[in-house]
């Protein structure tokens, strides 16, 4: 059993991101969606996710971008987001405890909720997401 700890460093963020996306890449519901979009750019995607979560959890501002836009046209629905949230929460809970662990799970849930809402909006609209 892993000794759970606080998320305090970039190395902690990398541990979370690496183990979470390893689960995603093997998950029957999510793997094809992620692999079809990311293809051979996994190292670049992981680096971007390190910066995103480093900014959110450690308040070290290394991520600059529009996180929704790359997700706007994905072939996903609520079941995909529920699975993403489940895997993310399980990964956080496996390795971490404390305030930043709670923050990570809360932020993941809120992002999933917002992204699903926006995807559904853009599917029924002639508008396109702004970069």
What does this protein structure show overall?
This protein has 131 residues and is mainly alpha-helical. It has a single domain, classed as Globins (Globin-like). 65% of the residues lie in helices and 0% in strands. The chain has 5 helices and no strands. The protein has helices spanning 10-26, 31-38, 42-58, 78-95, 99-123. Helix 1 (10-26) packs across helix 4 and helix 4 (78-95) packs antiparallel against helix 5 (99-123).
Question: In a nutshell, what does this entry contain?
Answer:
By secondary structure, the chain is an all-alpha fold.
Topology:
Blueprint: H1 10-26, H2 31-38, H3 42-58, H4 78-95, H5 99-123
Helix pairs in contact: 1-3, 1-4, 3-5, 4-5
What is the CATH topology classification name? Globin-like
Sum up the overall morphology in one term: globular
- Percent strand equals under 5%
Number of strands: 0
CATH architecture: Orthogonal Bundle
CA radius of gyration is 15 Å
Structural category is: mainly alpha
Number of helical segments with 4 or more residues: 5
Task: List the keywords.
131 residues, mainly alpha, Globin-like, 5 helices, 65% helix
């Amino acid at each position: 059993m892993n000794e759970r700890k606080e998320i305090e460093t970039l190395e902690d963020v990398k541990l979370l991101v690496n183990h979470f996306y390893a689960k995603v890449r093997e998950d029957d519901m999510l793997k094809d969606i992620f692999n079809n979009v990311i293809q051979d750019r996994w190292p670049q995607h992981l680096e971007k996710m390190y910066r995103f979560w480093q900014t959110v959890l450690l308040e070290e501002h290394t991520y600059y971008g529009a996180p929704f836009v790359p997700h706007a046209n994905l072939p996903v629905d609520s079941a995909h987001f529920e699975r993403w949230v489940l895997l993310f929460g399980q990964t956080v809970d496996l390795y971490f405890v404390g305030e930043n662990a709670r923050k990570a799970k809360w932020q993941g849930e809120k992002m999933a909720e917002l992204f699903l809402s926006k995807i559904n909006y853009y599917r029924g609209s002639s508008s396109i997401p702004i970069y």
